[in-house]
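Worked example 3. Consider a protein that binds FE2/S2 (inorganic) cluster.
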Amino acid sequence: MAQFIKVASTNELAAGAAKQIDVEGKSIALFHLDGNYYAIGNECTHRGGPLAEGFIEGDTVTCPWHGAQFNIKTGAVASAPASKPVAKYNVRVQGDAVELEI
Ligand code: FES
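Given these inputs, the predicted complex is written out as structure tokens:
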């Protein structure tokens, strides 16, 4: 059954920043955009590049390896060479805890 797990504190992640989270055997990229937090799979569906280390612009992250782009809010592909979306995870903030639904 799905549950929320604390993965970060709100003060750990500045607006416009991202962080790799390893939880329950999954590698997840957590993003902080304008006061809201979003989480998608960290491994680019092209060749596994780390999206938490990608370039963030607006709602889009660019994979640092070959430049595929993904929507940070949905995990959808925004630009090739990736053709498949990454997973999207629900995130909630409880007090100063950022929690991820796993
Ligand atoms: S691994 Fe991400 S674009 Fe190639």
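Take a moment to read the result before moving on. The pocket of FE2/S2 (inorganic) cluster is lined by residues 44, 46-49, 63, 65-68, 81-82 (CB under 6 Å). The two ends are 8 Å apart (CA to CA).
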